[in-house]
């Protein structure tokens, strides 16, 4: 089932693109990533609307009053939140669906890249079982796995002075962080639970994606990098990038009166002729 729905379509799509772009598997992965983003574009728009709806709800007077009213009752606050979801027409899953769909695509692409770049007779025999009859695979296999300085079937390292630098993994970390920061809507309450969770994800997700790009094939890392850049470009076209999120946020420090200023003794009127006692 997994092979039929995910692996086989990906392998054959990559082979067809590879044939069309003149036998460059790196370009094939880039074109494949663009196709995936175009297919997911309607879901991206829905994600944007869902995120905007969540932002409007969090800034609404009804939600702020509910937080104050049910501050000590978590269950009642959750019920009130669900009611406001319906009232505002917000679907929390709408903002998560494109992200969730990326995981089967990510796993499938990794397996598709590894199988498409088969070199041994046994691997080539296994690959032939996944190729559709109309794909002219005989003229293409084995595929050219070189792209720039990379072997797309192996983890990427750029050798500089004898040291392997994981350039793609670093770029994946940077672009994933930029993506999460630029697309994060401003929060009216920085101490809100959802805002705190977003800040945590802004740190953990780039590191997780960078680690995957570091240990797995560079073909998958290339997909991550191009996908991040396209995702940022889509939001830029829609005018939804929050550039202010990249600036350091100043924390408001509450001003407290000193104990001396609040002392009752200072509030008593001084009687005429009253002298200080030494």
Description of the molecule:
The model is unreliable at 252-261 (pLDDT under 50). By secondary structure, this protein is mainly α. It has one domain. It has helices spanning 2-20, 25-39, 41-58, 61-69, 74-88, 97-116, 121-128, 167-182, 193-215, 218-237, 264-267; strands at 146-147, 150-151, 158-160, 163-165. It is 60% helix and 4% strand. Strands 1-2 form a two-stranded antiparallel sheet. A two-stranded antiparallel ribbon has the order 3-4.
Which tags fit this structure?
278 residues; mainly alpha; two-stranded antiparallel sheet; two-stranded antiparallel ribbon
Arithmetic mean pLDDT: 76
Secondary structure category: mainly alpha
Give the end-to-end Cα distance, rounded to a whole number of Å: 93 Å
Strand tally, please?
4
Reported for the largest beta sheet, the result is: 2 strands, antiparallel
The coarse overall form would be elongated
Helix-strand string: HHHHHHHEEEEHHHH
Taking all Cα atoms into account, the compactness measure Rg is: 28 Å
